[in-house]
Amino acid sequence: MKALIIVDVQNDFLPGGALAVKNGDQIIPIINRLQRKFSLIVATQDWHPENHGSFAANHSGKEIGESVSLNGVKQILWPVHCVQDSKGAEFHLDLNRNNWSKIIQKGTNPLVDSYSGFFDNNRNGDTGLSDYLKSEGVREIYICGLAADYCVKFTVLDGVDEGFTTYLIQDATKAVNLQEGDFEKALEEMEDHGAILTDSSKI
Hints:
The chain is of the alpha/beta class. It has four helices and eight strands. Helix content is about 20%, strand content about 20%. The strands form two sheets. Strands 5-2-1-6-7-8 form a six-stranded parallel beta sheet, with helices on both faces. The chain has a two-stranded antiparallel ribbon with strand order 3-4. The chain is globular.
């Protein structure tokens, strides 16, 4: 059994959003086409409280892009984004949601960020994604969405660690690219960790 995991295709990560990924909207038609090939589809959703510790606005004197220690983990500070029940946290209207089996919300604990769809960044909080997939008999997962160098990457790495044959769909993801070349580094890291790089035409 295989599953498609769509990571964080939310308004705040798309052009015009608070933490926009350049050309992030270009992957939506690709993801919609991909969905026709899967009977099990799971989406992750960044779902932060307003007082989340990853927001620069919640740290006096700190700027976006600076780092702090958050619950013992190095944390990059981001703009306020994907606040619970906000427009920015909603999935893009063009994203087909008709056949989704489950939505996994993450980043709900203000004391720790959660890039991965499986665990928070401390690996203390479990979203239940792994148990759900295994209960459905899933052995292969195909991951796409935003952003390649953060939430997608950590979801892929955890997917491998959880024992799934894990594919990264390269043409169905885009990177934040805080530093030039971050996308390429993320791809290399995922592949080195045991993920299989593929593209939508091969699925």
